[in-house]
Amino acid sequence: MSTIADPKAPRPSRPGPSRRTTRGNFELYGWVFMRGSGVILIVLIFGHLFVNLMVGEGISAIDFGFVAGKWASPFWQVWDLLMLWLAMLHGTNGVRTIINDYAEKDTTRLVLKIALYTASVLVITLGTLVIFTFDPCPPNSPADLLPSFCTA
Question: Which domain of life does the UniProt lineage start with (predicted)?
């Protein structure tokens, strides 16, 4: 006959270094960041959707020229940059939490986090470069390759 363990008994700790003592207030700050960034992201995303879909001609007007005109304004560059950064950091923090909860081996956790952080830094860096270096009318380009609104 087998016995069932008491469900109210404390669980034995995992082998290896304790993760709870090394994190300090980082998890608290991560939790607060998720709530704050979530609220700001709601405003940024619905503002983005409203301007892109409701104002003007709707989705049929979104093309290369629309994006080029929008990113000609520093306001929209900063808006889209904030949306990119907050969305990526918010998502990265969420996936980091999932990795901490479900990856049992320290090596697996480390590899997954390195892949996550590498991908996040890459997307944030490339997205920031695109937003601030985007030029729909590059100088010395052949006129037949330029959009119609560029003066050759």
Answer: Bacteria
